[in-house]
Specification:
The chain is an alpha+beta fold. It contains nine helices and 18 strands. The mean pLDDT is 92.
Length: 312
């Protein structure tokens, strides 16, 4: 057998709530943080447009196993719609492709909000990370190709008009589910209002349990002189899993789970996890002395491990 290649970097595990700066790509942000922490492994939980600011959760090491739970979480945005101009990118980076003299009133805007709240159909923008035949839509759009992107069902849990600073602009807040595009939302609202529109400002203020007010910037991290000093900004692996039912296990059960084997818990613990729910519970966080051990399925009194954590 050949020698196993050593991974480059430090075996860091945990989450950073990055407050992403304007004009900085999500992949670029991950690369920068991976370098700042000298981390072996890093990834983000949900792309944020380069022109958008705010919460970009970045996972290191074992925390990358919890990324799907953040990707599925709700997201909160604050954004400004600029009326009168549609752009190729649905934000202010693109070229103007259509104009309108119509400027909607407060009453008109408020009258269309119910149409864009709840489960709605949305066509993602041409400039989006949606894959078309194995290629990203934005790569095809940059080549000048117009592609057919299928409509999809998305959830807009809340949509509120916050302010009308002037006739050309309106400020909104929204809470969305997975796969929703704010740029597409503004584009479609503008059409419903008999005008054109694009997003002129966009800030993501929360992703699941992660909030902008708890975030750090790249500049904050750069002020710290060593990767080890930056570790103080890391949140634990299970920071993404606060919404899951929790099961405290003992040492022997934790060892079984870490080996990929089911562990039996007491009826009292199972009852606490279930909270009155019957049947199999698909995702439970098992922990030992407050440290994440595994994400499990609870079947009867058996915890069956789905994803096991092995931090260094």
């Amino acid at each position: 057998m050949g020698k196993q290649r050593r991974k480059k970097g430090r075996p860091v595990s945990g989450w950073i709530i990055l407050d992403k700066a304007y004009d900085f790509g999500s992949t670029e942000a991950v690369s920068k943080l991976k370098w700042l922490f000298q981390a072996q492994k890093a990834g983000h939980a949900g792309t944020l447009d380069p022109l958008a600011t705010g919460v970009l959760p970045i996972a290191f090491g074992e925390a990358t196993k919890t990324v799907p739970y953040v990707m599925d979480a709700t997201k909160r945005y604050r954004f400004t719609a600029k009326w009168g101009e549609a752009t190729s990118t649905d934000d202010r980076e693109g070229e103007v492709i259509a104009t309108s003299d119509k400027r909607p009133s407060r009453a008109e805007i408020e009258s269309v909000l119910p149409r864009f709240t709840g489960t709605i159909e949305q066509t993602p923008p041409q400039f989006s990370a949606v894959k078309i035949g194995g290629e990203r839509a934005y790569d095809l759009a940059r080549e000048g190709k117009t592609v057919e992107i299928e409509k999809r069902q998305i959830d807009i849990h809340e949509l509120t008009l916050v302010d009308i600073p002037d006739a050309d602009c309106a400020v909104f807040e929204a809470v969305t589910g997975k796969g929703a595009y704010v740029r597409a939302l503004v584009r479609d609202m503008a059409v419903a209002l008999g005008t054109q529109g694009h997003v002129s400002e966009l800030r993501r203020t929360a992703v699941g349990p992660f909030r902008a007010e708890d975030g750090v910037t790249i500049a904050d991290l750069e002020k710290l002189e060593t990767p080890e000093a930056r570790d103080a900004a890391l949140l634990p692996i299970d920071a993404a899993l606060s919404g899951l039912p929790q099961a405290a296990v003992g040492g022997p059960e934790a060892d079984r789970l870490k080996r990929g084997q089911p562990a039996v818990i007491t009826p009292a613990t199972a009852k606490g996890v279930r909270g009155g729910e019957a049947g199999t519970i698909p995702a439970v966080l098992a922990s030992l002395h407050g440290e994440a051990v595994a994400i499990c399925e609870l079947d009867g009194l058996k915890l069956k491990p789905l994803r096991v954590f092995n931090p260094a």
